[in-house]
Amino acid sequence: MSRTTDVIVVGSGLAGLMAALGAARQGREVRVISEGMGCLAIGSGSVDLLGYAPDGACVDDPWAAMALLPATHPYSLLGSDKVRAALAALVETAARHGLGLRAAERDGTPRNTRVPTIMGTLKPTYLVPDSFDQEALAKARHVLVASVRGFRDCRPALVIDQLRRYPDWADKNF
Predict the structure, then answer these.
(1) Are residues 93 and 31 in the same domain?
(2) Is residue 50 part of a domain?
(3) This prediction's pTM
(4) Predicted local confidence at residue 60, as pLDDT
(5) Within this chain, do residues 89 and 10 fall inside the same structural domain, yes or no?
(6) Are residues 58 and 31 in the same domain?
(7) Nearest alpha carbon to residue 81 among 63, 95, 65, 104
(8) Short-list 78, 8, 7, CA closest to 49
(9) Number of domains present in the structure of the chain
(10) pLDDT 10s digit of each residue in the chain, 174 long?
């Protein structure tokens, strides 16, 4: 292995992987440096886009909320057209590798949807796997929370206790 490279990307989260992909598409030799499993190992396969406003409020329409961001915010600096192009590139790349991603929708309009996390919180997320059925999740009366033996970071009892704090989840049977 050569000790020289064109681009070194530190971190293998979504931003790092997309940076590495972009550089590789431009013909650059890329090395990714990462430590540990990172957040992708326990992620939902979803992609967040401006889930929270600067005041901490949960964002339903990230495109409209971008207009409220300070001029120094990365989305403001890039502009919504470049953010849309980056998401489109991600969706296209994922599709070429067999993973369908789509914007979550409500009434036919792309919106953030709230997805349960491994910690029992509901996080706003924008792109979800094609297999994600938000209506079925909302209508579910019975929910199974399971872990995998040896996977220290998932505690089903904690997840259940946390989810019960949300009004839409309080009456579900776990």
Answers:
(1) no
(2) yes
(3) 0.78
(4) 95
(5) no
(6) no
(7) 63
(8) 78
(9) 2
(10) 567 899 999 987 777 888 888 899 899 999 988 876 555 555 678 889 999 998 999 999 999 999 999 999 999 999 999 999 989 988 998 899 899 999 988 888 899 999 998 889 999 999 999 999 988 988 999 999 988 887 777 789 999 999 999 999 999 999
CA distance 38 to 44: 13
Task: Tell which residue, 114, 110, 105, has the closest CA to residue 63.
Answer: 110
**HEC-encoded secondary structure of the chain:** CCCCCCEEEECCCHHHHHHHHHHHHCCCCEEEECCCCCHHHHCCCCECCCCECCCCCECCCHHHHHHHCCCCCHHHHHCHHHHHHHHHHHHHHHHHCCCCEEECEECCEECCEEEECCCCCEEEECEEECCCCHHHHHHCCECCCCCCCCCCCCCHHHHHHHHCCCCCCCCCEC
Host domain of residue 26: 1-41
